[in-house]
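job 3f2a | input accepted
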Amino acid sequence: MKKIVIDAFGGDNAPEQIVQGGVLALASQSDFNIVLVGNKEKIENILGKLTYDKSRVEILEANEVITNDDIPTDAIRGKKDSTIVVGMEHYKKDEDMVGFISAGSTGAVLAGAIFKIGRIRGINRPALAPVMPTITDGKVMMLDIGANVDCKPEFLCQFALMGSAYMSNALKVANPRVALLSNGTEDKKGNAFNKEVFVMLKELKGINFVGNMEARDILSGDFDVIVTDGFAGNIALKSSEGAVNAVMKMLKKEIMSSFTSKIGAIFMKKSFKNLKNKMDYSKVGGASLLGIDKVVVKCHGASNAETIKCACVQAFDLYESKYIDSIKKSLEDNK
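job 3f2a | predicted structure (335 res):
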């Protein structure tokens, strides 16, 4: 039986919500077991309150936790009994372990994945790559959104190959449309870095490069993969999140401003609920760390049990999609 490894002590709601999420994943799908990494006594106390198939749960003892205050590379080297280090070391060696998920320190997950699991041969830098909903009810991936704030042009070409392979294999998008985030849609737009990347992407084999795009069109549904460096990507993502949150708050304020608005909202209740569900990160799982030689999913620090459940299913589906093999083939074709 294949296994999903879960950092049980990563995130703001660890370990209770993380352990509960793993158990929920078992109830939702019978294709994998889970391995919980952390303090055995605390994990067993939480499991003792839950109903689950005990044969499908393992515990890996680890008694240190890497926090957001730690320097990631130092923590990976120094905290050898941490949940991330212990989990990833076992994950690297065990072929039955096919996915690793954590809601802990992003930097530590990235550093641990590079040092303990290893990159795909030919990939210079792994990229954090969330998948977001679009207004056309599709999905769009943006990478990188923070793992690499300083990039070389060849890094973005690798991001394009990885994102295209992911969307083709994991989400079954035919001939994914790849765009470069810029300050205009014209071919000559952008700074010197973007202009160099633009030329390289046009010559890249195996991707459907459609040109430049602007940040306002991230969720338009006109693109399937958006390529950028981690600095611009992080700003664009958080700006989009902030804009969506602001609009939702303003909408709520307007609804509560009058009796007639409240009455109208009652008839719109189902539509509002559907919109909230589409924008709810907890129902997606996490951002894939593309470029690592096994499946790694980084969940939001505030992840709850539902998020962890979805991330477990997401990780297993990614393993089954064989997108990593597709990335390797794309790299070979572009040698």
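job 3f2a | The radius of gyration is 21 Å.
job 3f2a | closed
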